[in-house]
Write a structure and sequence with these properties.
Layout: H1 9-28, H2 35-55, H3 58-74, H4 78-94, H5 101-117, H6 121-136, H7 141-151
Length: about 160
């Protein structure tokens, strides 16, 4: 029999934010997702953002907006991807003092992918260049490797 645990509301929000985030990452990496899994991935991204808004900082909100933008891009929904990529970019600027170097790189990557899926080739190429430059400037070698792996994965809709 499992032991029942008690959580504060804050702890519960953190738990659900992280759990939903992990679910999205797992589904993003799955090559043969079903339509139901695509829906689950989208709703989990939004749920993670909601929970981070309850207990997180501007940094958590920025990262959650990046994730939502990435999911919309992955699903081929340009309008949704652009909306959330722009919000990610706004939060990156608004909370610049909280951002890591890789957060800035990911914000550019989100704008590049969103513009690519929306068919805005010139903007996508411009943001992709910024993402590549920001990625090369990431100081931590593991973070840099992880970012460049993400940057070089997924559907770029003909721009990469």
């Amino acid at each position: 029999m499992s032991e029942e645990k008690t959580y504060t509301e804050q702890e519960a929000h953190r738990h659900f934010a992280a759990s939903a985030n992990g679910k999205v990452w797992g589904l993003l990496g799955k090559a043969d997702r079903s339509r139901a899994e695509d829906e689950l991935m989208l709703y989990a991204a939004h749920a993670s953002c909601y929970h981070w808004l309850q207990v997180g900082t501007g940094l958590h909100h920025q990262r959650a907006e990046w994730m939502i933008a990435r999911v919309y891009a992955e699903l081929g929904v340009g309008e949704g991807a652009l909306f959330h990529a722009r919000r990610c970019q706004e939060l990156t600027e608004q909370y610049a003092d909280l951002m890591e170097d890789f957060d800035r790189a990911y914000a550019f990557e989100a704008m590049a992918r969103a513009n690519a899926v929306a068919g805005n080739r010139a903007d996508a190429e411009e943001y992709l260049k910024l993402a590549e430059e920001a990625g090369q400037a990431i100081a931590d070698s593991e973070s840099k490797k992880f970012f460049l792996g993400d940057l070089n994965s997924g559907d770029w809709h003909g721009i990469k």
